[in-house]
């Protein structure tokens, strides 16, 4: 297993483009800390974002994982191109000739994705922990370590999304087209399937079906945290609307994404196995 | 003798096209094999199948007696297919380290092999800066990293300039001299003739011949003759039971043997019959002539 990871590491780390992207990914996560520095200074009104309670435990877990998961597109580019390049350089063929089995090849890619997701999750955890310790109003251990489910959800979301990218890379074989396909698929889910089902079977059926689609189910893992923020809530309540939203991470949602991950990895393997190179 | 590769009734179809048809042959340890065939005769497809990159349609093959799975067996094989494939953004050393990881062999042979193919001074250059000849030599170095039981080369001199071709051939000869089994696919016959002891000949995916080079045709060779009294010579040859067809071209008479006969006894016979020769050569058909006659006859 270590060998497979090392193989992939050599391939990735020696490539300038992917090295720059990986480093900037982590730098950007680190930059979340800069939100704390946002200050509005309009005459008598001084507004500091960090003082508004957005870094309070446990809310910070929700907010930071949500922001960080927006950055996953960076690594998606790396994954898609690392897969597509194996095809265009014909190194996939050479790897197999050199004695890597097709199973090992997929395993080395998946392990890389998995390892990257683990590192990424740990990184988000540490950044959020430090930020929280600086700015949170509550620092009791029991509060700090509550709602850690968001980190699990973040991790599952990354693994699922990256597996999807891996599959697209193998399916399409060209990085630009694979990324294009990703965007098209997003449109298919959100415009095509959503409204098709809505039109055929009504709104409720549409909502149910959407839950099971790959990108939508990944998106559902961590719901947007903005409306949960107290300042926003009180503002909306003044307008007369009421909030009744479920922000928690559900096991069923994790299971759906887990299934998609398994399906994508299996399909990648099946596709590779079937193809003549 | 130890068998390295056995191919049994192997068939590969690409849609309606049959690229390899019911192919069987054995590769024994210590020999140098050539797979010969015109372009599109299924050489690369056959190699692709035994190297795990092309799926077979029917039949089977086994490495080293079939006791280990293909990808494990391939770690004991060194192979270069068509074009050298490496990561363009990595240096020679980095690429070879990766191959060592895949083949699970120690990295201490890298310098030695680079030295052998004459790339040691360019070891830290990126692969994409190499010329085609250098790329091909790096591929050979890479294939040798595990000191393979068998080296498979598919058209190793394709697209190279004369100097590059010469370098590659020298390297192949050096490796063959060390006793490594080699399987060389090529359509360049002189290339195969110079190094191979055995050949497998393919045409349109079918095997025409497999075995030692010298037994390729049941041919006894032919005589090239010249004499002042040509009509007498022609009559003599025409009446002689040992000769098949006789050709007369530009004053040179070519008589093809149907059975074994040495030059001195022919000379003796002719002299007794009062015919004196000005030119007498006995020749075996070259691989090229044999190959052409094999591939043409079976049309």
TrEMBL record, chain A:
TM stretches of this protein: 20-40, 60-84, 110-136, 148-172, 179-201, 254-272
**Pfam families under this entry?**
ABC2_membrane_2 (PF12679)
Recite the UniProt keywords alphabetically: Membrane, Transmembrane, Transmembrane helix
Keyword Transmembrane among record annotations: yes
Keyword hit for Transcription regulation: no
Kindly provide the name given to this protein in its UniProt entry.
Answer: ABC transporter permease subunit
User: Could you tell me which species this protein originates from?
Assistant: Arenibacter arenosicollis
TrEMBL record, chain B:
**Keywords for this entry?**
ATP-binding, Nucleotide-binding, Transport
Q: Which GO terms describe its molecular function?
A: ATP binding
Instruction: Give every ABC transporter domain span.
Output: 5-229
Top-level taxon of the source organism = Bacteria
SMART domains for this protein? AAA
InterPro entries for the chain: AAA+_ATPase, ABC_transporter-like_ATP-bd, ABC_transporter-like_CS, P-loop_NTPase
Identify the Pfam families for this entry: ABC_tran
Name residues in a coiled coil.
none
Return the similarity comment.
Belongs to the ABC transporter superfamily.
Xref: PANTHER family? ABC TRANSPORTER, ATP-BINDING PROTEIN
Query: What is the name of this protein?
Result: ABC transporter ATP-binding protein
Q: Which organism is it from?
A: Arenibacter arenosicollis
């Amino acid at each position: 297993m270590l060998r497979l990871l090392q193989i992939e590491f050599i391939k990735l780390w020696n490539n300038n483009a992917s090295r720059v992207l990986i480093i900037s990914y982590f730098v950007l996560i680190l930059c979340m800390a800069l939100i704390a520095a946002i200050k509005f200074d309009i005459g008598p009104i001084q507004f500091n974002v960090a003082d508004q309670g957005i870094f309070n435990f446990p809310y910070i877990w929700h907010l930071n994982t949500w922001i960080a998961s927006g950055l996953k597109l960076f690594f998606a580019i790396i994954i898609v191109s690392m897969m597509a390049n194996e095809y265009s350089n014909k190194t996939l063929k050479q790897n197999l000739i050199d004695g890597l089995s097709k199973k090992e090849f997929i395993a080395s890619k998946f392990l890389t994705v998995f390892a990257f997701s683990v590192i990424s999750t740990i990184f988000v955890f540490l950044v959020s922990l430090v930020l929280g310790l600086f700015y949170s109003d509550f620092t009791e251990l029991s509060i700090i370590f509550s709602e850690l489910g968001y980190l699990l959800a973040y991790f599952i979301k990354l693994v699922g999304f990256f597996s999807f990218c891996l599959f697209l890379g193998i399916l399409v074989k060209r990085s630009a087209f694979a990324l294009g396909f990703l965007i098209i698929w997003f449109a298919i889910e959100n415009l095509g399937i959503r409204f098709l089902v809505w039109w055929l079977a009504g709104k409720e059926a549409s909502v149910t079906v959407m839950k099971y689609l790959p990108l939508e189910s990944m998106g559902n893992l961590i719901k947007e945290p903005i409306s949960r923020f107290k300042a926003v809530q009180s503002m909306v309540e003044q307008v007369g609307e009421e909030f009744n939203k479920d922000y928690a991470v559900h096991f069923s949602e994790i299971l759906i994404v887990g299934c998609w991950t398994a399906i994508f990895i299996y399909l990648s393997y099946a596709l590779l196995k079937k193809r003549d190179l | 003798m130890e068998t390295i590769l056995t191919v049994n009734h192997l068939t590969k179809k690409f849609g309606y096209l049959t690229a390899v048809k019911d192919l069987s042959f054995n590769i024994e340890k210590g020999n140098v094999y050539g797979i010969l065939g015109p372009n599109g005769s299924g050489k690369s497809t056959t190699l692709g199948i035994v190297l795990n990159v092309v799926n077979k349609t029917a039949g089977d093959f086994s490495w080293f007696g079939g006791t280990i799975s293909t990808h494990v067996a391939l770690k004991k094989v060194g192979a270069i297919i068509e074009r050298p494939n490496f990561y363009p953004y990595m240096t020679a050393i980095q690429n070879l380290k990766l191959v060592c990881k895949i083949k699970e062999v120690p990295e201490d042979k890298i310098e030695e092999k680079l030295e052998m193919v004459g790339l040691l001074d360019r070891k830290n250059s990126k692969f994409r800066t190499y010329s085609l000849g250098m790329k091909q030599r790096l591929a050979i170095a890479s294939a040798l990293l595990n000191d393979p039981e068998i080296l498979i080369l598919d058209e190793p001199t394709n697209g190279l300039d004369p100097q590059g071709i010469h370098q590659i051939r020298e390297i192949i000869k050096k490796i063959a001299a060390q006793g490594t089994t080699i399987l060389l696919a090529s359509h360049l016959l002189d290339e195969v003739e110079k190094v191979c002891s055995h050949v497998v000949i393919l045409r349109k995916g079918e095997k025409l011949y497999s075995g030692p080079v010298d037994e390729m045709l049941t041919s006894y060779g032919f005589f090239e003759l010249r004499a002042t009294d040509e009509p007498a010579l022609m009559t003599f040859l025409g009446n002689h039971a040992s000769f098949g067809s006789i050709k007369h071209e530009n004053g040179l008479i070519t008589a093809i043997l149907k059975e074994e006969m040495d030059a001195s006894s022919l000379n003796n016979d002719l002299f007794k019959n009062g015919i004196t020769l000005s030119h007498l050569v006995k020749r075996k058909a070259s691989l090229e002539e044999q190959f052409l006659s094999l591939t043409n006859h079976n049309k």
